[in-house]
Design a protein that fits this description.
Blueprint lengths: L1 H11 L7 H13 L3 H12 L2 H27 L26 H15 L4 H20 L5 H20 L1 H20 L5
Amino acid sequence: MESLNHTIFLWLNAPKHPGALTLAVAIFLAEQLIWTVPLLIGIGWLRGGESTRRTVLAAAASGLLGLLVNQLIGLVWPHPRPFMIGLGHTLIPHVADSSFPSDHLTLWWSAAFSLVLQRGPRRAGVVLSLLGLPIAWARIYLGVHFPFDMLGALAVGALSAWLALYGARWYLEPLYQFATGIHRRIFDRKTP
């Protein structure tokens, strides 16, 4: 399996001197697009009603659960990144930690799949899920992840979204009340 992972990586990884436009697009997808998740959660919280706020809290919980699962996997089974074993071309700097599963894609897909599994925002969840594919390509292209890291992120993201929604009856209401209390303290100040 590892040789297949390496073969697919080398097929998708950038050449030594990629085109400027392709490189710029890949860097944007790999490093900047991830900020869409917290931005959408923030906008959903600030502009949405009670239902939207609960939806984005569940998506945030799903993302955090996914990242926690990734940390546990990395502790139990540390997997080197391509540049750590001298494979391919690395075009962006990255810390030399475990590559499996991808944290970027786990956060992205956990939040996206959470939206897919909830009643209201399914279309937005499907769009975000599909946008994960160019992010996956970019992180492989730039040399910081293997293809199987992305498959791991897909699995962890789906599992985390399901677990976060399944367990929502235990945590969502207290979390919603806590977050609403903070929101009121910050935004409902009366001016003298």
